[in-house]
């Protein structure tokens, strides 16, 4: 696609959003398949996969700045007509990914045992989780390279090729996983370790495809410490924001567990459905990020604001449509996950909060994408921390103190989303985010538009 210099149509927005949704959904879908394959080994191996996978997910989740931060920086360059500079952001993000990933691999070999021991409790589960994690963590640099690749390709408004690369890697893992785990076609039966090996092989393919795509752009591939430092500074704010989310949702899970098995089971089901909804909304946020960054890079702040309004309207409509779908299915959808009357009763307590926040979340996610595209990450960090401290966390722990159950927990999530909406709408209306120029923050050749 060409850099954005004017208004964009709904077709352009969704042409970016749908492939981005495919990338976001591919990994969770593969993890379900991986779980099903390992599940045939027995409860011990399945529990080991759950604990080891949780550790790996927590590590990689905190480093998504390699995709989102790179998109923000690359889209500005692309919008200014500097495609080589946009791709160059991908080069430096890839070097950063390799460096951070190798550090993670080394550290994991020292801390894997103690960490899974604390999480697992049972020594048998801990042993299974540790053996899986020691192999799977080798793929950390590969995963981070793929994040960086996604980032710069989104920045140049290409969300289709990342989808192909991700599907290729996950497809290879899906083919190898049952073969290596269960010893099919004459191969040795590797058990749980086979799952980790299959993951790393598939991740290798995806990472190689992204690196080859970089090399074919014919841009300088040498490291640039100044650019990497700027990316790391931006990443620091995004990591802090991500940690705020983790603190909230881990606290919610911990409190839900104090109300009994039915409560925590119901909370987990509704939370997984919420995660599915956020994936869908995040795809539109990625489109907003890409298009707004390009518009500001091309010095069209007015166009950036119009794009922001248009994506926000579409995202709110999408959120409202999802809310209507889940409201209509409130007697059917929960029963797809459980037939336990106690769990269903608890799900009913959270269900209408879950439905009510979807249209609000549509606005929040879209404007999050707008501000990310503008590089306004310090504001997003501060707003998320403030909303968590004043909204979500107090209600979660008050729920425990006063026995409010899932009603209190999901009231906290609702307040969290509402406060975030107030914050991002205020920031959007202030226009303080709409700084033009190829550099984030306008430090060199940018200026705030009036």
UniProtKB/TrEMBL annotation:
Topology with respect to the bilayer: Multi-pass membrane protein
Keywords: Cell membrane, Membrane, Transmembrane, Transmembrane helix, Transport
Gene Ontology terms for molecular function: antiporter activity; xenobiotic transmembrane transporter activity
One Gene Ontology cellular component annotation held by this UniProt entry: plasma membrane
Record Pfam families: MatE
Compartments in which it is found: Cell membrane
Source taxon at top rank: Bacteria
Transmembrane segments: 49-69, 90-112, 132-153, 165-185, 197-215, 238-261, 273-299, 311-330, 350-371, 383-402, 408-426
Entries under CDD domains matching the protein: MATE_DinF_like
Family note: Belongs to the multi antimicrobial extrusion (MATE) (TC 2.A.66.1) family.
Name of the protein in question: DNA-damage-inducible protein F
């Amino acid at each position: 696609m060409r850099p954005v210099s004017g208004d964009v149509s709904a077709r352009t927005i969704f042409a970016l959003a749908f492939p981005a949704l495919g990338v976001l959904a591919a990994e969770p879908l593969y993890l379900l398949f991986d779980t099903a394959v390992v599940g045939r080994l027995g409860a011990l191996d399945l529990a080991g996969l759950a604990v080891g996978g949780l550790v790996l997910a927590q590590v990689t989740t905190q480093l998504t700045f390699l995709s989102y931060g790179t998109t923000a920086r690359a889209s500005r360059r692309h919008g200014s007509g500097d495609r080589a500079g946009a791709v160059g952001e991908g080069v430096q993000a890839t070097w950063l990914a390799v460096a951070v990933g190798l550090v993670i691999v080394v550290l994991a070999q020292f801390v894997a045992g103690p960490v899974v021991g604390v999480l697992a409790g049972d020594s048998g589960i801990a042993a299974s989780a540790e053996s899986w994690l020691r192999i799977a963590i080798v793929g950390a640099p590969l995963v981070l390279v793929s994040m960086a690749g996604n980032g710069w390709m989104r920045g140049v408004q290409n969300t289709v090729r990342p989808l192909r690369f991700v599907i290729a890697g996950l497809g290879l893992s899906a083919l190898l996983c049952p073969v290596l785990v269960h010893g099919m076609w004459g191969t040795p039966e590797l058990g749980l370790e086979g799952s980790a090996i299959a993951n790393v092989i598939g991740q290798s393919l995806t990472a190689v495809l992204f690196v080859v795509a970089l090399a074919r752009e014919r841009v300088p591939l040498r490291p640039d410490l100044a650019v990497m430092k700027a990316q790391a500074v931006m990443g620091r704010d995004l990591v802090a924001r991500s940690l705020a989310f983790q603190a909230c949702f881990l606290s919610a899970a911990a409190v839900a567990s104090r109300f009994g098995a039915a409560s925590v089971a119901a909370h987990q089901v509704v939370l997984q459905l919420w995660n599915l909804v956020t994936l869908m909304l995040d795809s539109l946020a990625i489109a907003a990020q890409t298009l707004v960054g390009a518009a500001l890079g091309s010095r069209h702040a007015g166009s950036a604001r119009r794009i922001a309004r248009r994506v926000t309207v579409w995202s709110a409509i999408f959120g409202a449509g999802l809310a209507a779908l889940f409201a209509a299915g409130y007697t059917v959808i929960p029963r797809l996950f459980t037939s336990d009357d106690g769990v269903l009763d608890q799900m009913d307590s959270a269900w209408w909060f879950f439905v009510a926040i979807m249209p609000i979340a549509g606005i929040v996610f879209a404007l999050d994408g707008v501000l990310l595209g503008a590089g306004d990450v310090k504001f997003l960090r501060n707003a998320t921390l403030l909303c968590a401290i004043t909204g979500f966390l107090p209600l979660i722990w008050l729920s425990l103190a006063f026995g409010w159950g899932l009603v209190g927990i999901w009231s906290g999530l609702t307040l969290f989303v509402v406060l975030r909406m107030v914050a991002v709408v205020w920031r959007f209306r202030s226009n303080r985010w709409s700084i033009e120029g190829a550099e984030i923050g306008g430090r060199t050749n940018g200026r705030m538009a009036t």
